[in-house]
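Q: A reviewer asked whether we had any structural model of the full assembly, not just the individual parts. We don't, so I'm hoping you can provide one. Inputs are below.
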Amino acid sequence: MTTKEKFFYFIYLHRTGLTVFGISLLLLVWPLVETNPYNLGLSNLIAMYTMVVLGLNLFIGYAGQISLGHAAFFAIGAYGSAIGTATYGLPAWPMMIAVALAAAVVALAVGVPALKLSGHYLAMATLGFNIVIYTILVQWDTVTGGPSGLAGIPYLGIGSLVFDNEITFHYLAWTFAMLALLLSLNLVRSGVGRGLAALAEDETAAAALGVDIRRAKIKVFVMSAVLASLAGSLFAHCYTFVSPDSFGIFVSVDFVIMVVVGGMGSIWGTLFGTALITMLPEWIESLENFKDVVHGLILVLILLFLPQGLVTGIVDAVRTRIILGKKHA
Amino acid sequence: MLELKKVSRWFGGLPALEDVSFRLETGRITALIGPNGAGKSTLINCISGVDQADQGRIRLDGRAIESLPAHTIAGLGISRTFQNLKLFSRLSVLDNVLAGLTVTAERSFLLSMLRLPHLRHQERKLRLLGLEALDDFGLADKVDWPAAALSYGEKKRVEMARAFVSAPHLVLLDEPVAGLNNEETAHVASHIRQQRNAGHTMLLVEHDMDLVMDVADQVVVLDSGRCIASGTPAAVRSNPLVLEAYLGRMEATA
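A: Here is a predicted structure for the entire assembly that you could use as a starting point for your response.
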């Protein structure tokens, strides 16, 4: 191989890692370009939602299951960190990890019975779980602060560095989000990921190839719960205030819409879908009151015409066309 | 290698398999034939763990496997194809074949997420195995295609490549040439012979008698869930019970 070929081969071999690296560089300089704190706050929200939606996309797009209750795990992370730090004054970082572990235990307890179900039944079960958690947040006001929420959550910090404004928090949130993205990309490129993709398409065939389908579903569910919980903790420390409104079933539905827009099983699409759905209300302010209608419409249209999701559907169609074009040429 | 003893399976009181017993020999091709509804696919499902026998023993090298789940049986080295294709249409051809290496790939979620150097190395080795298997089945030029874009005959061959890629102890082939034309059937026959020469043990369920007579070392005949004959292809072909099962009862006409 010549040096030039070696160079291109290196790029090809490490294309995923290099893309992640490139995007990380862009994110590093982003606060220098974008100085409006409101916009930075929005992109921080995208980072936190991305973590939730990545886990959910692995669960929906790879393991082939459905969850309409992921806002509940987001809530466990947020309220866990909020109660631990604001009410009891516990240290924030260890609390974040402890709450994530608690979310994993809850996911296990919910997942073991619920994942025996599939399709509509699983959707109903996870929806029910979300409603239960939401009701607890509203009703158990001595602990959760009820409908008015819980304030006075401290900012996160490392040593003397405190993540108390949009710019510092930008680096924190996107470090988490890019790590989650990298880990997800690694997972789907491994034997485990192929097993999950097989599971999404045909459970019998996946089992015959050696995938323990019950265990695999539960593992992905628990992993997505941990991601959602970590994102929730960040969310609480970012706004120093939490209220039940951020964790209702419509938030769960929005997460699913983000997965669908990004495309089932597309990790990069997740980033796009999350960003698009989070920004949409900003672009069409006049439709603010009809947000759920617009989201619903998007969901219906995509599922009607591109059941694999927007990005995945388009990529698949283009790829097939290119290959079939080659054959006829 | 694989031994079945009085295997039975009922579907709501109706027997699909009744006391089926036979053995598979290492390195041989055993063909399982019989009219439609004889229980051939049920038997393959019971061996591969997709379905569970109600009674009887199935032993792989002396180990009882009749109550194990499908993924454990796959781990013991029994792979299979499906009568009505079960390819993963969204995955590329290569990824489909690599899915056949699930049992050899890294199983841990955490290690997979970290993708340490040894895992990269292992992935590269698996990729080579996959490419080799696709080459064996004449699909080397289509590794990047989405499986959905392949022709029916090519899909059948991808499924076979997926079954053979892990070098399993036993491969169960459920009607590998159903729906193929003569030319494609000849291709598949030569692939099956090639795999036999490589030392693979196979159980072949097939309706195509020419293929069975051509490649099988031993033939087992099922009829209405019972094993009515077994032996070499030539012996089975002239067995009156087999002729009766296939052609109907011969009545003396005056």
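A: Points you may want to mention in the reply: Chain B touches chain A through 42 residues (CB under 8 Å). Strands of chain B lie at 2-11, 14-24, 29-33, 55-60, 63-64, 78-80, 170-174, 201-205, 218-223, 226-231.
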